[in-house]
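Incident log, structure service

09:12 report received: a user says their structure output differs between two submissions of the same chain.
09:20 pulled the input from the user's history:
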Amino acid sequence: MINIPKGTKDMLPEDAYKWHYVENIAREVADCFGYREIRTPMFEHTELFLRGVGETTDIVNKEMYTFEDKGGRSLTLRPEGTAGVARCFVENGLQQGVMPLKAYYIASIFRYEKPQNGRLREHHQFGVECYGSDSPSADAEVIALASAFLKRAGLKSLELNINSIGCKQCRAAYNAALKEYIGSNLHLMCGQCQARFEKNPLRILDCKEEKCKAITAQAPRITDYLCDDCSKHFSAVQSLLDSYGIQYKINPMIVRGLDYYTRTVFEFVSTDIGAQGTVCGGGRYNHLVEEVGGKPTPAVGFGLGLERLLLVLENTVGLGAKDEGICVYIAPLGEQAKRAAISAVSELRANGISAETDIMDRGVKAQLKYADKRGAKYVVVLGDDELAKGVVNVKRMADSTQCECKLSELADFVK
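09:34 re-ran on a clean worker, output below:
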């Protein structure tokens, strides 16, 4: 037997309703905020992620699925959604359209990492991208969209953590202060942090190693080094979140795991899944479009792992209504009745009513047993007598009551 690859998971038909539940809410909430769906390829040129995500990130260093195609081109399965959307924005000239561009995606993401509960090598994200606005209002709106989605999905124990990691100018001063603080303890830190020390010391704050976290716990706070513009921007974001009625906590240790972030960064944390508490993360990335070859364009957005969200929902508040099965099952007796049943279910389906008939050549008892297992609301047994009269008995399975109607009027009866 050929087994499923490690770190991937099948979605079985009986679990489909869970995915439909969260995906439908994502689409509905995004639509309410004026965001439209965008779809990009599952794989891109590797250079896009090297330039956009950053060579010092764990994604680029450890986690990308990279391969050469038959033409010798280096391609990578997308390890995150934002860089691909930025490439799409530039390549399709979307900057020439109405700004801001508001887009969302629901897409597969691929990362080679140790599989964990709620974290797979192929997982799925709901992401939001807003291009063209440098206003704190865009930051607050994106956070408000994430908050609205999570609350509508049913999460209760949520905490919003926000921070500002400044711009290139004020971050330079902070990097110098951080390097000075870490310098004497660098030899005690992990190899990854030692490699980041010169290239991107800010990324050290994102390390999950306990020995590194102990050293950085008392490190200087980047919020103390923000320039006037970044400080005003961060204050405005906080004020706007107050206007939205969204509670938050300033967490100076949040830097996010990707190099393209500037200014605002944020995470929604659920206390219901322990150490893997972050269910949504995002922020502003004002230089990403330029990095992938476009004109300077401010942008802000977030990514939200659906597997992790489903895990939280399953462990706490539950999910939406389960699959209610089919509406009508028609059990034919004989070949003539079978043809009539096909015509009847076709009419029902054309009227938006879910309907089935036998395709296994079962006897009537086996068909009725199947209809019960499929959760059929109504069952019709169709034989020669019913065909001759053009009238059928419709059994409502909830209470076993039966009503008579014309076969040609079955769709209207069910409605």
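09:41 both user submissions now match this output. Likely a transient worker issue. Closing.
09:42 reviewer note: The mean pLDDT is 90. The chain has 15 helices and 16 strands.
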